[in-house]
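Customer ticket, subject: "Can you confirm the structure for DUF1330 domain-containing protein?"

Message body: Hello, I'm evaluating your service for our small team and ran a test protein. I'd like someone to confirm that this is what the system normally returns, since I don't have a reference to compare against.
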Amino acid sequence: MAKGYWVSVYPAISDPERLTAYNELAGPAVQAGGGRVLSLLGGRVVAHEAGITQRVVLIEFDSFEQAVAAYESEAYQKALVALPDGVERDFRIIEGID
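Agent reply: Thanks for trying us out. I re-ran your input and got the following:
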């Protein structure tokens, strides 16, 4: 079964401190949904072409369906409500290759 991944890139964060409430809710929601964080927040990034070096997050799930279910969970939806307006985020759920 192909794994599922959450890929988040944050092109603009106007108030990084306001992300704290989201992070405090999102972390446990991701873990409860079976997600494993693969990239470190603030880790090293080398950007090419139109890439950005701002915050990049990669989370792995055992399946694509599990990744979708974790996003749709009540716990993660509460975290999304806490995501500040001043955050621009490009978020995707993708299916890996077997």
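A couple of notes from the result: Helices lie at 19-32, 64-72, 74-82. The first helix runs from residue 19 to 32. Feel free to reply with more questions.
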